TrEMBL record:
The gene is yqhS. Gene3D superfamilies: Dehydroquinase, class II. The lineage of its organism: Bacteria, Bacillati, Bacillota, Clostridia, Eubacteriales. This is 3-dehydroquinate dehydratase. Catalyzes a trans-dehydration via an enolate intermediate. The keyword Transit peptide does not apply. Homododecamer.
Length: 160
């Protein structure tokens, strides 16, 4: 995938943290009924014909996420849509990792983290990200990719 991505020029990563591999089965009333695999297929269907290669990664382990993100940077990743799961609220490790990455990161949350328990309203990782999307379900990943894609194009951020 990464090789194919390099051939088309731009590759973006979509990364999910702990407990997000079980989307569709995990509290569907909050996180939706669509599986992580179905979301990947949706994103592929839209972005592949537009010449943007996507790489997907999910891990329940903080260190594996850091390893993946650092390796992605070394492989020329152009940007990351990242849902850190609960690490959002507790991981200085991940926040420090994001600060050191050369590529932009958009933090994504399926649910509106500001409308839930108090502990969720605080994100340690968002200040280290370029931007954040929260509460729009799977569409958040798509919008994060749209922002990252536009950022790579001359004048792209200003396009309507
Ligand atoms: C989440 C919100 C987090 O608070 C939670 O721990 C998750 C999912 C979301 O996508 O809404 O695992 O990141």
């Amino acid at each position: 995938m990464a090789e194919a991505a390099a051939a088309v020029g731009l590759w973006l990563a979509v990364v999910n943290g702990p407990n997000l591999g079980r989307l569709g089965r995990r509290e569907p009333g909050i996180y939706g009924t669509e599986s992580w695999e179905a979301i990947q297929a949706r994103l592929e269907r839209w972005w592949r014909p537009r010449g943007v290669a996507l790489e997907f990664f999910q891990s329940n382990h903080e260190g594996r996420l850091v390893d993946y993100l650092e390796a992605a940077a070394d492989r020329g990743c152009g940007g990351v849509a990242l849902n850190p799961g609960a690490l959002t609220h507790q991981s200085y490790v991940l926040a420090d990792c994001l600060r050191a990455l050369p590529m932009p990161v958009v933090e994504v949350h399926l649910s509106n983290i500001f409308a839930r328990e108090d502990f969720r309203a605080r994100s340690l990782t968002a200040p280290a990200a370029w931007g954040q999307v929260s509460g729009l379900g799977w569409l958040g990943y798509h919008l994060a990719l749209e922002a990252l894609w536009r950022r790579q194009r001359p004048g792209g951020e200003a396009e309507a």
